[in-house]
C-alpha cells in the first residue's frame, strides 16, 4: 500500500475502489501495525491533550456497536477488525480501537454515499415493458427479462446496465459523450454512444443485432480484439460451445417482437422452440431432430402463446398439440 493512497484515504480524497483496497489492507498484520503506529504518532503530537486518564473501554459493547453498524451496511464490503485482548496501555489502545472503528465506519459511510441507488426491472413470461432511463434512453424488455441499473447517473459517469433476457435499446447521446455499456451474463459487453440495437442474452449464448449507429462488442478473454458492428449486422456468441459468427440480416425482423407480430427469416424451428420456452415459459418438444433444423420465413401474430401456436401450425403446416405447459410439435 503506497503512502499517497493512505494519505488521500485519511484526507477523505479517495475513490470508493481505492477505499475498498485500503480497508482490506487494514485487515492484514501489516495494515494493523501501520494503523497503530500512525495513531501513536498522533497521540504524541503537542495538540493531543487530555485532562484525565482514560480507562480501558469495555470490548463487548464496542464490538456490539461495530457489528450493528456493519449490519446496517450489509450490502457493502466490510472490514474485519480483530478484538484487542490486551489493555496494558488503556489510553493508547482505546485510541487505536476507537480510531479504527471511526475510520472504518467513516469509509463505509463515504462508500455508501458515493454509490447510487440501484433499480431492477423484471418482466414476467410473455409480457413486454418499455422503460425510460434517467438519461433519456429507452429500453423495451421482452418477456422473462431483467434489467439492473443505477437509479441516476452522475455527469461524466459511464452509463452501465446489466441485462439478462432480451431487450431493445434506444440509447441517447450525451453532451459529455458518456459511454453506455450493456453487461450480459455470458461475459459479453456492449459499448455504445448513441444507437439502437436488439440484444438477446440467455445462459451462455447471446445475439446482438444493430439497427443503426455504432456499437463495439467485447466477448471477454476469448476474443483477440473488440468487434465493431455496423447497421444490419447480427453477431451470435455461444461462450460454452465457442461458437461465434456474424452475418447480415434485416434488423426489423429481429426486433419484431415489440409489435403485434413475430417475423421469421430463415429461422430454424428449434430456435422458435427456444424462444417460446425462454420468453413464454412453456416446455416445447420437437419429436424429430430433422424437423427442428428446418427453417421458417414469415410472420405470425404475437398476442399470446395460443395465437403464436395457431399461426405456426397454419403457416408452416405443423401439427402442434398442447397439454398443460408442454407443447408437442410434429
UniProtKB/TrEMBL annotation:
The keyword Transmembrane appears for this protein: yes
Provide the FecR protein domain boundaries. Answer: 121-216
Q: Which residues form the signal peptide?
A: none
Q: Name one Pfam family in it.
A: FecR
Recall the GO molecular function terms of this protein's record. Answer: sigma factor antagonist activity
Q: Where are the transmembrane segments?
A: 91-111
- Write the record's keywords in alphabetical order, separated by commas: Membrane, Transmembrane, Transmembrane helix
Q: Source taxonomy lineage? A: Bacteria, Pseudomonadati, Bacteroidota, Cytophagia, Cytophagales
Q: Which domain of life is it from?
A: Bacteria
Q: The Protein FecR C-terminal domain covers which part of the protein?
A: 261-329
**The protein's name in its UniProt record:** DUF4974 domain-containing protein
Amino acid at each position: 500500500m503506497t503512502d499517497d493512497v493512505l494519505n488521500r484515504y485519511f484526507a477523505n480524497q479517495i475513490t470508493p475502489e481505492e477505499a475498498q483496497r485500503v480497508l482490506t489492507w487494514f485487515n492484514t498484520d501489516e495494515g494493523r501495525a501501520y494503523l497503530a503506529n500512525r495513531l501513536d504518532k498522533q497521540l504524541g503530537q503537542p495538540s493531543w491533550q487530555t485532562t484525565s486518564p482514560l480507562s480501558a473501554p469495555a470490548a463487548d459493547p464496542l464490538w456490539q456497536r461495530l457489528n450493528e453498524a456493519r449490519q446496517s451496511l450489509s450490502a457493502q464490503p466490510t472490514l474485519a477488525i480483530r478484538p484487542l485482548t490486551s489493555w496494558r496501555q488503556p489510553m493508547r489502545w482505546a485510541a487505536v480501537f476507537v480510531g479504527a472503528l471511526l475510520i472504518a465506519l467513516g469509509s463505509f459511510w463515504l462508500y455508501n454515499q458515493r454509490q447510487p441507488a440501484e433499480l431492477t426491472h423484471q418482466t414476467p413470461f410473455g409480457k413486454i415493458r418499455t422503460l425510460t432511463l434517467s438519461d433519456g434512453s429507452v429500453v423495451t424488455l421482452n418477456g422473462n427479462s431483467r434489467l439492473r441499473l443505477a437509479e441516476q447517473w452522475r455527469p461524466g459517469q459511464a452509463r452501465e446496465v446489466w441485462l439478462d433476457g432480451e431487450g431493445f435499446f434506444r440509447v441517447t447521446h450525451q453532451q459529455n459523450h458518456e459511454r453506455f455499456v450493456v453487461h450480459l451474463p455470458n461475459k459479453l459487453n456492449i459499448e455504445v454512444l448513441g444507437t439502437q440495437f436488439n440484444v438477446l442474452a440467455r445462459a451462455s449464448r447471446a445475439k446482438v443485432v444493430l439497427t443503426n449507429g455504432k456499437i463495439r462488442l467485447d466477448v471477454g478473454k476469448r476474443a483477440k480484439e473488440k468487434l465493431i458492428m455496423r447497421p444490419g449486422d447480427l453477431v451470435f456468441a455461444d461462450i460454452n460451445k465457442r461458437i461465434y459468427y456474424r452475418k447480415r440480416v434485416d434488423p426489423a425482423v429481429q426486433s419484431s417482437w415489440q409489435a403485434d407480430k413475430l417475423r421469421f427469416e430463415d429461422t430454424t424451428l428449434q430456435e422458435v422452440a427456444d424462444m417460446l420456452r425462454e420468453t413464454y415459459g412453456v416446455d416445447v418438444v420437437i419429436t424429430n431432430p430433422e424437423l427442428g433444423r428446418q427453417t421458417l420465413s414469415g410472420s405470425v401474430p404475437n398476442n399470446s402463446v395460443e395465437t403464436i401456436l395457431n399461426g405456426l401450425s397454419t403457416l408452416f403446416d405443423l401439427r402442434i398439440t398442447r397439454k398443460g405447459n408442454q407443447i408437442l410439435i410434429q
